[in-house]
Amino acid sequence: MTNLLVPLTHLNAAPEPERKFRLMEIVRRAMRERRYSVRTQEAYEGWIRRYIVFSGRRHPADLNEADVRAFLSDLAVAQRVSAATQRQAHAAIIFLYSAVVRRPLLAISDFTPAITPRRLPIVLSEKEVRAIIVRLREPDRLAVSLLYGSGLRILECVSLRVKDVDLDRCEITVRGGKGDKDRRVPLAKSAVADLRRRLRDSHRIWTADRKNDVRVTGIEGALARKLPNADREWAWFFVFPATRTFRDHSRVARRHHLHETHVQRAVREATIAARVGKRITCHSFRHSFATHLLENGADIRTIQELLGHSDVRTTMIYTHVLNRGGLGVTSPADRL
């Protein structure tokens, strides 16, 4: 599918250099030009590929709204994807036609919508959180402590840079979170000592990397041009650096941050060892952070800001904790 060439008739307004590019190359370039996050680029590219395969590997310019409608309906009926997944696929196809094919789609609203089940988040008790954390080893223990103590997403946690941690103010700045938004979250005082040790270990790695001209990842584009040496500075180094280095396409030695799967695997093993009978993921600690704040009297707007939610309705799901014991009533069995 990556060998699909873009016919000249399909891109009437395309400049001369674009004639030699393949379809997916143009898709990737268009997303980079719009500064989409890496995760969004990967997701959109995957959906565009699935759309083309579903449509018999025909060029998107030869397809129309009916084909898009059939694809989205198939996701809901045959693939049984969630509503959020279907919305992401829809957004990817809209991007394809507006930015690459350059023939914006007419409004498509009559496809079969995916069912949106009402799911409550899985929340740990404080005892369960403690039981899991004590069974973890560093650096996973500190990472999970930050997930729970600061309400971070797993990628936000492992990609933290030194400059974004303020030990004196007990504060963490999350840069470019979901929706490319920055926010500040609290740093638990109980995690400060462990974080200081983590930074000392990271500094030793950074010192060795500086001698060997190993640079960190994630500093590119306009930022790299503005701060050409940022990827060698201590402030931009990762709090949780990866154990191995690699060479990028320019043959420059680089070090990435600790991969999310490393922490996810450790959490899974610790959950089993602690005999916690719940389906726990790294995101469960973020759910627990919000729920426990609500239980302790924090207002919903504050929690919304700490979690980085754009819509307070997303945060409102945590109000289920106010309904403990079946809407707060006392079971008649307790009076027997």
How would you describe what is shown here?
There is one protein chain. This protein is mostly helical and 336 residues long. It has two domains: 94 residues, DNA polymerase, domain 1, CATH 1.10.150; 195 residues, Orthogonal Bundle (hpI Integrase, Chain A). Strands 1-2-3 form a three-stranded antiparallel sheet. Strands 4-6-5 form a three-stranded mixed sheet, covered by helices on one side. α3 runs antiparallel to α4. It is globular. The N terminus is likely disordered.
SSE topology sketch:
Layout: H1 23-33, H2 38-54, H3 65-77, H4 83-101, H5 126-133, H6 140-150, H7 154-158, E1 165-166, E2 171-174, E3 183-186, H8 192-211, E4 215-216, H9 221-226, E5 241-247, E6 253-257, H10 260-273, H11 283-295, H12 300-307, H13 312-315, H14 324-327
Parallel strand pairs: 4-6
Antiparallel strand pairs: 1-2, 2-3, 5-6
Helix pairs in contact: 2-4, 3-4, 6-11
